[in-house]
Amino acid sequence: MSRLLAAFLTCVAATVLAAGAAFGIVTALEATPEQQNVPLVTFPDPPAQGPSTASGSGAG
C-alpha cells in the first residue's frame, strides 16, 4: 500500500510541477515586450517611369 501511495504522490507532484512550469513559461513570455518589426534590408523605391513605347512590342 505504501508503494502505491508513493507512486500516486509522485505522479501528483510531477503533474503539479509540469503545470507550474508551463504557467511560468507562459507568464514569462507574456511579460517580455514585443519586438519591433523592423526590416534588416530596405530597397529604394524605383523611379517613376512614363509610358513606354517598347512595352507593346515584346517577345511574341
Summarize the structure.
Residues 1-18 form the signal peptide. By secondary structure, the protein is mainly alpha-helical. The chain has one helix at 2-31.
What does it look like?
It is a single chain. This protein is mainly alpha-helical and 60 residues long. The protein contains one helix and no strands. It has one helix at residues 2-31.
Descriptors:
60 residues; signal; Secreted protein
Low confidence ranges: none
| Strand residue content | under 5%
Provide the helix percentage: 40-55%
Shape: rod-shaped
Using only CA atoms, what is the Rg? 31 Å
- Based on DSSP secondary structure assignment, what is the total number of beta strands? 0
Largest sheet: none
Q: Can you write the helix and strand succession as a string?
A: H
Average pLDDT for all residues = 84
